[in-house]
Amino acid sequence: MLHTRTCWIFDMDGTLTESLHDFPAISRALGLPDDEPILEALEKLAPDELVKRQRQLDDIEREIARQATPQPGAYDLLSDLRSQGKRIGILTRNTKDMAHETLAACGLADFFHPDDILGRSCCPPKPKPDGILKLLSAWSTTPADAVMTGDHKFDLLAGRNAQVAAVYLDPQGQFPWQAYADYAVDSLEALRQLNLAA
């Protein structure tokens, strides 16, 4: 049951914040294939080209960060978790700096200790489990006590790869990646109710 788990890790963009990223459009703006994940496509570039494209990506992500708004229910869910004494962290494929900027823009920064926010600059990106395991090690806990919540297949696979409970948020209620999830919710309020269900 989720309410017994003491450590909650969240994806950021599209999970704690409203989804603003049009990934195919970003790929096209960077001159990358729009049918391949951006970070994986960047890895294939020559070093000088990679630096140029990463700079472009930073500019795009910073503009999106400044426009960030919280996902409905984010404040109430995070407030509940904090009041219950649970550890909460963020694991994003964005950079750590951009995560801080995003959280500040949407009024959620105060919920998180800076050390508990990890991005692609801190560890190999999801779907690799490294970020989850790094947080659990810092918190001196085990996967059996943890939850990973996200809106994308990579979030769910990272949870599976780390052997924590994987919660799939899809506000559209379509759940194309439900096979990778232990729980599926269409809102953070629904997740809040699951956490409250004893």
Structure summarized in a few sentences:
This protein has 2 domains: 2-18 and 69-196, Rossmann fold, CATH 3.40.50; 23-66, 434 Repressor (Amino-terminal Domain), CATH 1.10.260. Helix content is 40%, strand content 12%. It has helices at 23-29, 38-42, 47-66, 74-83, 96-105, 130-138, 153-162, 188-196, and strands at residues 7-10, 87-91, 117-118, 146-150, 165-169, 183-185.
> Count the helices. How many?
8
Assign the CATH class of the largest domain. Answer: Alpha Beta
Number of strands: 6
CATH homologous group name of the largest domain: HAD superfamily/HAD-like
**Cα radius of gyration in angstroms:** 16 Å
Uncertain segments of ≥5 residues (pLDDT<50)? none
Strand order of the largest sheet: 3-2-1-4-5-6
User: Can you summarize the main beta sheet?
Assistant: 6 strands, parallel
What's the order of the H and E elements?
EHHHHEHEHEHEEH
**Structural class by SSE content:** alpha/beta
Structural features, described:
The model has no long low-confidence stretch (mean pLDDT 93). The protein has a six-stranded parallel β-sheet, sandwiched between helices. The chain has two domains: 2-18 and 69-196, Rossmann fold; 23-66, 434 Repressor (Amino-terminal Domain). The chain is globular and about 55 Å long. The chain is built from eight helices and six strands; from the N terminus they run βααααβαβαβαββα. The relative contact order is 0.18. It is 40% helix and 12% strand. Strand 4 (146-150), helix 7 and strand 5 (165-169) form a beta-alpha-beta unit. With 198 residues, it is of the alpha/beta class.
